[in-house]
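Input record, target 12 of the design panel.
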């Protein structure tokens, strides 16, 4: 038996879910829907409009877009290459092997707590593992296709603003981008 609160409204197909995703670890990720992005882009102009168009069309992180230079864009192929700025610190195979060795020595040390040799081996292995953890991961790059229209807008922007091949397209901060988005979101169409 259904209750009145369980009956969907007459226009239930028009009801949109909240613009929030929850990850398996219950972390909330807020996102912008297509119609919201189109509205925000429509109220922006110049550099800010181009910035948001790149964000929307590539799905890149704000920090990745802010690091773009004209040399990151292949205008002939219609692609942008982003340097991934999210640091994924994965242990190397040698570090994983060392970590397993440490676990084994720790277990052996529990069986023989007075062993100076095992204690020394454990100390040396932990010291060696600490050097592995400090090594930064190699830079990762990904290439994203873009529409010819967007490539043309980027080229036009670079030429009209005299942006050199290795100069940042958008020399602003992430905070400034969030401010741009917030103000555009509040602006009437």
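The sequence produced for target 12 reads:
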């Amino acid at each position: 038996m259904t209750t009145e609160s369980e009956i969907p409204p007459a226009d239930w197909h028009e009801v949109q879910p909240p613009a929030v995703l929850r990850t398996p670890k219950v972390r909330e990720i807020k996102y912008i829907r297509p119609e919201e992005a189109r509205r925000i882009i429509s109220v922006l102009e110049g550099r800010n409009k181009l910035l948001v168009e790149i964000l929307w069309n590539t799905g890149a992180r704000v920090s990745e877009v802010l690091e773009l230079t004209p040399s990151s864009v292949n205008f002939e192929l219609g692609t942008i290459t982003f340097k991934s700025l999210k640091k994924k610190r994965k242990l190397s195979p040698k570090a994983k092997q060392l970590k397993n060795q440490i676990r084994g020595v720790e277990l052996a040390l529990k069986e023989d707590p007075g062993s100076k040799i095992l204690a020394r081996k454990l100390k040396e292995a932990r010291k060696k593992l600490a050097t592995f953890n400090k090594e930064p991961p190699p830079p990762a790059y990904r290439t994203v296709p873009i529409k010819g229209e967007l490539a043309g807008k980027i080229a036009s922007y670079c030429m009209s603003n005299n942006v050199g091949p290795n100069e940042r397209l958008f020399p602003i901060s992430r905070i400034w981008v969030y401010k741009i988005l917030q103000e555009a979101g509040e602006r009437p169409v």
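The CA atoms of residues 24 and 150 lie 35 Å apart.
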